Amino acid sequence: MTIKNKHIVMLGCFDTKGEDFTYLYECLKGFDEEVITINTGVMETNVDFPIAYGNEMVAGHSGTSLTTIRESNDRGKAVALMGQGAAKVISGLVEKEMVKGVIGMGGGGGTYMTLAAMQEVSLGIPKLCLSTIASWDLSRYIGAKDITLMSSVVDVAGLNSISSLLIKQAAAAICSMANVRIAPSVTKKKTIAISMFGNTTKCVDKCSALLKEKGFEVLVFHATGVGGATMESLIREGVFDAVLDVTTTELADELCSGVLSAGSARLTAASDMGIPQVVAPGCLDMVNFGHLDTLPSEFSSRQLYSWAPNVTLMRTNAEENIALGKMLTDKLNASKTAVTIVLPKKGISQIDKEGDIFYNPEVDKALFDSIKKNSRDGIPVVEVDDHINDESFSKALVEQLMKII
């Protein structure tokens, strides 16, 4: 059963891939869906289905004209601008609550434009891209969005026995996802976001259990770069009532060019949105790199630990910890509502404890002193004489969160 006034959005280059999109359109209509079509191709287009947003309109939404794009004879520029235009179109449709799902397909350029446009689609509205490059690392373009990639196997260049099968399957998938319903709970629980790493699992597991006992819904995010970025994105979408940011390790990767940076916006969303938060410096003792032979040469003499064959951890030093303390507090000092920082004095990760490989209380002290020095008035810095994975520290974190919710 379809939703009245809500549509599946189909977008792509209808100029060069008209046969494929005509078939996709027919498949979507065959599943009894209303379809809004967006043409991101820049050449003359002649297809046998209605185009709701033509390429001239899409180009206009990018701040230029189709004529200008054509005359530039610059494919890269055309792909970027038409992707921007399509994103603006979809943003308007989402704002009007007209979208129940989005599907696109193509090669490199078509995939880029589809993924760019899907950035404007809210969590929970399904997004599917049938792509010739689905096996590539597209994490930079997917970002924090819940996008499904599906390999086209063959090129999107005219129908054949393989492409027609996969296009129909893609149509069936997006229509099925768009019509999934979850019954709303009788009582709306307040929702807490928590960040976690392997090195803070014990802490977060206990915090989650304590919060669930108090009637909260808990969403845990793996602080692997994309995990932190996803958490920040959902905070900005208003999903959470509070944040327990136990594992701020992605700041260390941002500072030292590690592989798990969540970008410069990490630890800013709750402050910007006025959502209460309790923050701990979990795993700021480490920077993440890949296999040992991928380690940047300037770090070859540093203290290293192989967490797994493809994960090399580098111990942060005092200088980096002073910088990290300021980085963390600069972000939190902008908070529009209550925020508390909690410091575990006996170690900030599983391997930063007495007798373990990254244990270095003097370097941790440099971090803690920097946090205390740079925190503005009004932000409590609570020091707890525990290790981060002690059960008593988890209880202290939840206690501080309860004070400010």
The overall pLDDT average reads: 95
Percent range for β-strand residues? 15-25%
Across the major sheet, the strand order is 7-6-8-9-13-14
Largest sheet: 6 strands, parallel
- Span between N and C termini? 40 Å
Round the Cα radius of gyration to an integer and report it: 24 Å
| Order of secondary-structure elements | EHEHHHEHEHEHEHEHEHHEEEEHEHEH
Number of helices: 14
Considering DSSP H and I runs of 4 or more, what fraction of the residues is helical? 25-40%
Helix and strand composition category: alpha/beta
Report the uncertain regions.
Answer: none
> Outline, from the CA principal axes?
elongated
- The tally of beta strands, per DSSP, is 14
Description:
Helices cover 40% and strands 18% of the residues. The chain is built from 14 helices and 14 strands. It has helices spanning 18-30, 55-61, 66-72, 75-95, 108-118, 139-142, 161-178, 201-213, 226-236, 250-256, 269-273, 318-332, 361-374, 391-404; strands at residues 7-12, 35-39, 99-106, 127-131, 147-151, 191-196, 217-222, 242-245, 277-279, 286-289, 304-308, 311-315, 339-344, 381-384. The strands form 3 sheets. It has a 6-stranded parallel sheet, sandwiched between helices. Strands 2-1-3-4-5 form a 5-stranded parallel sheet, with helices on both faces. The chain has a 3-stranded antiparallel sheet with strand order 10-12-11. Helix 1 (18-30) packs across helix 7. The longest helix has 21 residues, at 75-95.
